[in-house]
Amino acid sequence: MRYQVPQFIEVEDKIFGQLTLKQFIYLAGGIGMCAFLYVFISIKFLAIILMLPVVAFALSLTFIKVNGKPFIDFIESGFYYLLGSKLYTWKKSEKKPVSTPVEEAKKIGNILQVPKLSESKLKDLTWSLDIKESFNSQEKK
Q1: pLDDT in the model for residue 16
Q2: Pick from 139, 131, 92, 87: which is nearest to 113 by CA?
């Protein structure tokens, strides 16, 4: 017996044309708020000016997605940030002066240590010859 597995479980159903239920509610709420402002404010020019931010907010809630998330998630995160408690920590650390490579070279002097790269004596010998040649060529200059 075979069962059909749902494929798109995270995609909301389109109920009103190309709009989901949430998108339709955001648009209907924006239209309702605009109608309320237009009816109850006697100065129509002022009502239209007040309706512009409501229309912009309703359209942004309905259609804008940032990084694949609905705009309402960012509004919710902003409210949590503004209303939540914040803890600011700061610890002063002492900064030590940084020495330059020239000063480091003066501290070390002319001591040159050849690092041991491997257990092979032949590789150690070639390494020491390469270092001595480059060190001698620098002294001659």
Answers
A1: 78
A2: 131
Rounded mean pLDDT of 134-141?
51
CA distance 8 to 16: 19
Residue ranges of the domains in the chain?
14-75, 101-140
pLDDT at 4 over 60: yes
Q: Rounded to an integer, what distance in angstroms lies between the CA atom of residue 97 and that of residue 25? A: 62
- pTM for this model (two decimals): 0.54
Q: Phi/psi at 49 (nearest 5 deg)?
A: -65, -40
Which distant-in-sequence residues (6+ apart) come within 8 Å of 111 by Cβ?
none
Mean pLDDT on 60-72: 92
